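Field: COMPLEX_INPUT
Field: COMPONENT_COUNT = two
Field: RESIDUE_TOTAL = 620
Field: MODE = joint
Values follow.
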Amino acid sequence: MNHDAYPDNYIRGILNSVKSIAMVGASPVNVRPSYFAFKYLAQRGYDMIPVNPGHVGKELLGKPFIASLSDIGRPIDMIDIFRNSSHIMPVVEEALTLDPLPKVIWMQLGARDDAAALKAESVGIKVVMNRCPKIEYGRLSSEISWMGVNSRTLSSKRAPVPTQGMRLSLNRMSVGGGDTAASDRAAKNKTEQS
Amino acid sequence: MSDRLPGFSTLAVHAGAQPDPTTGARATPIYQTTSFVFNDADHAASLFGLQAFGNIYTRIGNPTNAVLEERVAALEGGTAALAVASGHAAQVVILQQLLQPGDEFIAARKLYGGSINQFTHAFKSFGWNVVWADPDDIASFERAVTPRTKAIFIESIANPAGSITDIEAISTVARKAGVPLIVDNTLASPYLIRPIDHGADIVVHSLTKFLGGHGNSLGGIIVDAGTFDWSTGGKYPMLSEPRPEYHGIRLQETFGNFAFAIACRVLGLRDLGPALSPFNAFMILTGIETLPLRMQKHCDNAKAVAEFLAGHPAVASVNYAGLASDKYNQLARKYAPKGAGAVFTFSLKGGYDAGVSLVSKLQLFSHLANVGDTRSLVIHPASTTHSQLDDAAKVKSGAGPDVVRLSIGIEDKEDLIADLEQALGA
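Field: COMPLEX_OUTPUT
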């Protein structure tokens, strides 16, 4: 997989197929990006599991914090890692000991570890790096367009009637739209320099 | 990427707009409302806390305006955009995110006269200090950099003489200085030049001009290229530091490559207030659908008129980068191969009086202070748009007393030439 730019159908396929998501590094502080993403994904119907050893005994939006991936004790579809690039590898290594294996390992905006990605992909796990599932969900459902964001999609099809004021169909038929090549290049240069 | 990328004309018609999910309306509806109902208390809190995408109040965002924002972002190759009430408002909102009182920004000396006034006087009163540089002398930008420099501002095609700026050379200076390059792309429109492809970090437009294109609606827009790293060194605290306005959110880490557009919306537009009317957004969106067709006709007409003027005995000189003999022709070939725009100046052998006489005799050209209309326009900058400048500054910015500026419309070029011929000849 080319991790500089993902086809929309790759991301759409992931967000459409996974049901349970363990979020490593989830924060109970309500202005942290991980809290935003956790809440958003829970509202979209995903079965969210907060993983953070520092907060065991507490809850995040009604879900108890779990100390580590191995302690979850049931199959999980996707691991969403909210840690810096330098802390990715141990999480991926732990994920690879799970039985069954997760289907997807997702690294948050700003996080990228190509070696860890290769390891996961070699056992058939799909990997996404340097993206936010909340932003991608909003982009593919076109909900993020309300913020003036370039969704990079076009569609002449009527989206399903919104529920609770939201446009949420990930299956909105769309083709590629305006690209953001300059931003993708800048992100790549930054990764290569670091 | 396996996804096929659409062309510019397809984006001009489709980007940002989809059939209305509720009614099926195909044209973008005008959401002429101040406010939007919340689902429940938690939804309201999520929206106010920036945790959810959605609409609150038209001063912060509006669904019609959002279509315009996404469309211009797509046309410019940016990650996101924010529409505001005018190009001037856009400039205030941009610099509010970048400068603290006492900071500096470097600006090209050749700019729209209104921008020169805004930078010199209004921004000075905010403690934002402009340092001028010469776009024909790249080294003058390097010399102007100090530890307090926070941004560089240029026009892609510069007012009033339609000169072409070497965006890539100045972007190199900006990168070295660790500051964003802001490009006012009003006179080119993304059809002719996409500054982000040449190293711009922020693009600003007066939508009032070629994008809207019909001289009927004011508007401005800010496009975030998603290229600048705001997190380094605490230089841009509006983006990198916890914001007390939002209980400690850091915008860059939360919104990634569209954080600047979000900052402009939630810290700039929200608090300063220059919101764009949804009706204006609708008018401008309609205009943008024909931008590629109009812009090509504007350019083709402008070249024909410039060639006519260059051969006329009453004309001393013509400044149009599309002419092979022009000083900026090389840059025009590089940056704007489809055409050098439709705004240019010429000077008359008869000086100031001949300029005044010409303006009074023209019958199709309208004498007014705007550019980028379907109609052809004429103005004498020294007595109008640039009148607040002193004489030396007028000449430096290309608006000397003998200079007349034209903005060529999309009429038949033969009629425009005939009108100029009768006004120059009689």
